[in-house]
Specification:
Blueprint (H helix, E strand, L loop, with lengths): L2 E9 L4 E8 L6 H9 L26 E5 L6 E5 L30
Antiparallel strand pairs: 1-2, 3-4
């Protein structure tokens, strides 16, 4: 299994990073295991190492872009969906700007 992790922002004071994860294969829990090994656990992921007191309503993991081939037409499809508001729960006070166009983020770049 292979995952490309690209740091987008990091705050050492609170120990949070915003990371883009590109899954090269499709294995169950792959991104959670690889991120925990390479950078630390995903916020709220108590199974792969985050502290229970950091757990919110959900793990701070979101599939913003999904690419697949339509089985009927063979056309390559790209679906995009910005993270919902609850994704940003762990980053509400983070000092970094977040990628533009991500609705619901605490701060967006111009």
């Amino acid at each position: 299994a292979s995952t490309l992790l690209t740091p987008l922002a990091f705050d050492a004071d609170v120990g949070l990073a915003l990371v883009r994860a590109e899954l090269r294969t499709g294995r169950t829990h792959q991104v959670r295991v690889h991120t925990a090994w390479a950078l630390g656990p995903i916020a709220g992921d108590v199974v792969y190492g985050d502290l229970p007191e950091h757990a919110g309503e959900r793990i701070a993991l979101h599939a913003a872009v999904l690419e697949l081939t339509d089985p009927g037409s063979g056309e390559r499809l790209q679906l995009e969906l910005p993270p919902p508001d609850d994704f940003w729960q762990a980053a509400r006070t983070a000092p970094w700007p977040l990628p533009s166009g991500w609705q619901g983020s605490p701060r967006t770049t111009a």
